[in-house]
Amino acid sequence: MESVPLLYHPATVLLADNSSAFLRSLALHLPQQQRAYCLYSHPMQLLQRLQFAAERRSFVNELWNNPTRQLDQQLHRQPQQHTNKQQSAVAAKHVAVQRQLQDSSRFADPFAVVLEHEMSPLSGLQLCQRTVNPFVQKILLTSCVDEQLMQRAKQQGLVDTVLYKHDHTMLQQLLHALQHAQERYFHLISTAYANKMQLQPQQTDFLADRAFRDFFRQLCQELGVVEHHVYGCPDGFVLLDAAGDCYGLCVQTKEQFDTLAASDVLQQASDEVQHDIRKRRKMLCVPQACTMPPPKQWQQHVHPTQVVSGLDTYYCACVKQLFSLPKALGFAAYSNKIDVQFVI
What we know:
Layout: E1 7-8, E2 11-16, H1 20-27, E3 35-40, H2 43-55, H3 59-65, H4 71-74, H5 85-102, E4 110-116, H6 124-129, E5 137-142, H7 147-155, E6 161-164, H8 170-196, H9 201-204, H10 210-223, E7 225-230, E8 236-241, E9 246-253, H11 254-261, H12 271-278, E10 282-284, E11 302-304, E12 306-309, E13 313-320, H13 331-338, E14 340-343
């Protein structure tokens, strides 16, 4: 994909095939670092799981059920101390992220269904028609070679990917399709999320800058990050590794640095802090929803910057436990319980 999504985390694949032997064989080759799996030998069982997921009151379902409803209007427990409208909106968005991180079922949300076409009593195409969540990606497995039927299904939007079971590269194609499906799922969610957060395109342009994308991916690999959530306007991310340990990534442009450097409030900070900020060696990292500390206390809130040069210049600082968030459930604890679930 061409940009960093606003949020991303491990999620679940639902697979259905009338052959339990095929499912058990397939399960041996499914990588489990980024996703969980539920395997069904009867299509009605998978359909019930889809219906349950669609009816559950969740962050993702709210995005596609109420696409025009603003995020800060749907949160009932906004911090009462925020009287400024903009502060309240930002705080509400942070509450939404906190709730998402405390919702262990986020990993159970299906991002893709893998369906054998030749199933009964419901075929794979019929199950695709009953998959109502528009974010969920649909992968069809088939033994027949009816190119016209498959092309028509793709053109109608019923299916995203078709794989032929007799192809000796089917497994490799499936693993590639699942990775692509997971990325596309979160990009679709990110578009809806940006609309709810009322983000302007210029606020998210840096996410599509190749230099920032490469920096972000490298940082996630080094820290073992498996999920991230935008946490700002958006000038920062919450990053979580598989154990649920949290990092904060602050991102600022040269213009944001210069605005602070030229402000009267910086004059109240220590000489060292003023020097570091004006030279862009360190940046002030304070969670958006928090009260800004007095300038005299900024010393403990400034952190070394890493310069990322692309279409623009970005200054980044990654700080462990920057955000005062309750301990989140990590994917490792979840996957140890669920891993590959058979319903056969």
